[in-house]
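Supplementary notes (optional reading)

For those who missed the lab, this is the record we used. Protein: phosphoenolpyruvate--protein phosphotransferase. Length: 315 residues.
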Amino acid sequence: RDARQAADRALPAQTRDGHRVEIAANVNRPEKVAEALTAGAEGVGLMRTEFLFLERDTAPDEEEQYATYRAMIEALQGRTLIIRALDIGGDKQVPYLNLPHEENPFLGVRGARLQLRRPDLLEPQLRALYRAAAHGPMSIMFPMITSLDEVRTLRTHCERIRQELNAPQVPLGIMVEVPAVATMADRLAEHVDFFSIGTNDLTQYALAIDRQHPELAREADSLHPAVLRLIQQTVDGARRHQVWVGVCGGLAGDPLGAAILTGLGVHELSMSPRDIPAVKARLRAATHSTLLELARQALDCDSAADVRALEGDAA
Ligand code: PEP
Ligand code: MG
C-alpha cells in the first residue's frame, strides 16, 4: 500500500484527457527539498527568502545568501526553482532593519518597495542570486510589484549586476498580488518573463480584508469571484504575450481552487508539500473540459460560498 501511494504521488497532474499542469512546492530551506520531492513536487515554485532574515540580529551577508541559494539549486538537481527576492514589511517585520513605524504596513513600504529604497538589502541579494545561478537553473521573482516603473528599475539593477559578475541570464518574474498588476497584466507581460500569482495578498487587497484580522480573515476567501476575475485577467493578459503563469498563494493548494485555476489556464501550481497529493488526485480525476466549465461557472458566481457549492455539482 505504501509503495502504491508513493507511486501515485510521483504521477503528473494530468487530466484524463491529457492536459498537464506543473506541480511545485513552496519550500524555503534546502533541507526541505527532499521532503517536497517525496510528496510529489516537480520543482520549487516559491522560495521565500525572508526566512534567512528572521529570528536573528543582523542581516545575512552576500556569502551566506549565496551558500543557501546554491544549496537550494543543488538540492533540486536541475528541476525548476523560483527564488523570491526579500518580502519584508507588512506582516513580516525584522527589528534590526530599523524600519520606520507605519500606520498601515500592508499598504506601506514592503517587498519590492523596500528593496528599491534599500540598496544595502537589494545589492547583496542580487549578487548572491546571480552567483548562485552559475550552478543550475533558477528564476528570480519580485514581490509586491505595483507598477511598470518598479519592474523597469529592478530589471536594470539585475542586468547591471549580472554583467558585473559575468553571470548567466536568469528569467525575471513578478508576483501578481496587487490588484493593479492583475488589471494591467496585458501591459506588464511585455516586460517580464513570468508571473506568479500570490492569492493570499491578492485576496486581502481585492477584498480590503487584512489577512490576519481576527474577525474578518475567515471572509478573505480566495475563491471569491472578484479574486477569480483578477486571476482571469492576469492569465488573459499573459497569454497575449505568451508569458507563463504560476500560482503560489494558498488557493493553489486547495483541491477546488487548483481545479478552477487549471480551468482558468495557469501553467503551474505551487503549494505546501502536504497539499500536493490531494491536488494531484483532484486534477487527475478530472477532464480538461469539465475544468474549463467549472472555471466559467465560478467566474459567474455571486460569492465565494456559491463557488464552493459548485464542487458538489461538478462531476
Ligand atoms: C501570497 O501573497 O499569496 C504569497 C504567496 O506570498 P506571501 O504569502 O509570502 O505574502
Ligand atoms: Mg504575498
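If you only remember one thing from this example: The CA atoms of residues 251 and 257 lie 5 Å apart.
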